[in-house]
Design a protein that fits this description.
This protein is mostly helical and about 140 residues long. It contains six helices and no strands. The radius of gyration is 25 Å and the shape is flat. The mean pLDDT is about 75.
């Protein structure tokens, strides 16, 4: 919100702009920065004295790209504003991807350490818990 004389408010609008709509819509362009960061994180960096090249990984790559965009982005007029809704969207997508990755690798480890005869018991147990959760959800929705 801006206060002042009408003439000054008009000058302010000319400099900054008066587009409320621009800030209401999520800027999903941040996903491209994350993707570039993931690609940068997968580049092997050879360090003398270490036999295996070092990679920044899934955390370091996006972090380095974010720091670079924050440092030089204003010179190239890169819009780094992310609305609250887009921020929440990116958080949820990241959480879903992380949990699905953990669940998938955990399932593989559980199946590797159990005897093949026990796999049937594990599937039946999983089916039983799925049925119980589904029944409880239906009861809650009915009221």
């Amino acid at each position: 919100m801006v206060t002042g004389t009408e003439k000054n408010i008009e000058r302010f609008k000319d400099v900054v702009g008066a587009q409320v709509k621009h800030l209401d819509h999520p800027n999903v362009g941040a996903i491209f920065g994350i993707l570039i960061g993931i690609i940068v994180g997968q580049i092997p960096i050879p360090i003398p004295g270490i036999t295996v090249p070092v990679k920044l990984g899934l955390a370091g790559g996006p972090l380095v790209v974010a720091i670079l965009i924050g440092a030089v982005g204003y010179r190239y007029k890169i819009n780094t504003y992310v609305s609250t809704s887009a921020n929440l969207l990116l958080r949820e997508v990241g959480l879903v991807l992380f949990l699905s990755s953990v669940g998938h690798s955990g399932r593989r480890l559980v199946l590797e350490h159990h005897h093949p005869g026990r796999r049937r018991a594990l599937r039946l147990d999983g089916l039983h818990h799925h049925h119980r959760a589904h029944s409880a959800g239906r009861r809650l929705l009915r009221g």
